[in-house]
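Protocol step 4 of 6: structure prediction from sequence.
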Amino acid sequence: MRSLLSEMVVDAGRGRADYVDARHVRSRSERIATRSGRVDRVERTDDEGLGVRVRVGAAWGFAATRMTDRTAAEDALSRALAVAAAQPRSRSSPLASEVPASGRHEATGTTDPFSVPIEDKLAVLSAADTAMRGDPRISVTQAEFLAFAEETTFASSEGALCEQRTTECGGGMTAVATSEAESQVRSYPGSFRGQVMQGGYEHFAGLDLVEQAPRVADEAVALLTAPPCPTERTTLVLDGEQLALQLHESVGHATELDRVLGLEASYAGTSFLSRDDLDSYRYGSPLMNVTADATVAGGLGSFAWDDEGVAGQAVPLVREGVLRGFLSSRESAAEIGLDRSGGCMRAAGFARQPLVRMTNVNLEPGDAGSLDDLIASTERGIYMETNRSWSIDSRRLHFQFATEVGREIRDGRLGRLVRNPTYAGVTPEFWAALDAICSAPEWRLWSVLNCGKGEPGQAIHASHGTAPARFRDVQVGVA
């Protein structure tokens, strides 16, 4: 495959295109789930093929094939060239320079999750499912195991030739409690399919689903009779997972440079930011430091090279509350005069063209100590934990989020549960209200498995590192 790709892109670059790259991708996934005491899903998928991308002047063309022989590869190249030729003519522009990628990278963990017998995984899921079903008010229980693996070979007409292999593993569980008038849900270790990281089966085993199951069910039942969240402006403390989604939606997507430039407007684009905001726009409080880091261990947005061969790197997005960077590609970086791409081009499999996507967009920890310390220093407010739903406009400016659970804070202590809590705001005003972030021991990565973008649509995986944080004077209420 290395020989096929390298020869093809070099040959194609001789007069037929200004730039060519090709990716061979083999993807595997496994999903195993139980639902209310029964096996709900046992599914394995394998996908393999070639994607070829060309640039002629400023016009891009892309084509893919499931066949991996030379004839199929050359046919995909011809189709990609035809797509580029059909594009409207526009001025030619350079790509940001990059040292051609070379080498091999593996991030696979200790134990290959695909090698562990399905029966062993089902035993863990069934035990967790059973442990959530002691109370008759628990109407639905779910437990899920997830594993993903991807092997990529990349070559370009500039001389790049590299290979990388990644493995991801994790899972989670959910309990739904119902009464005549109410339905409540609790999830662990996070909502929307739990928690996944780059690594082996040991990550899933370390989630301790069986041990956590009774608490998850008890909290779902307790929420049935909890009072509704009060509607007021107050101090808000967010747990790490909810803050990760807030970061994803109101910082990660907003700083994607193709959205900023108006090149991505069809799928929940664009952005409230402009190219002229770099190094001057006040995004949030001086405590706000955000980095897009493709090098952090275990992150779903970590890699040695992105899908146009740019080395993974750490890119400052916000420093002391001021916008300092964008998520970029070689083309968009050159468009605004940056010396180098941010290494943020990613594609969902071989059959999709790379787009500017998030790596691991992380909020750096502060010095507020533990979550207990943060609560103790808060006289009055609401603590919210575990996302339940979200809504944000296409410019990533106005938002409303709901969480599974809230707790009142009174005199520095967590008080009673409140149900159906929400909070709302405007992105720069919300981040300006940030006044405390827990310290490094509370910081961890949280996974997002459903980040959608592009037409045809493609979903990628990303992680966000956060520690619990406090925001002053936020509008909260009830869903």
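Step 5 (inspection) to follow. The CA atoms of residues 447 and 463 lie 4 Å apart.
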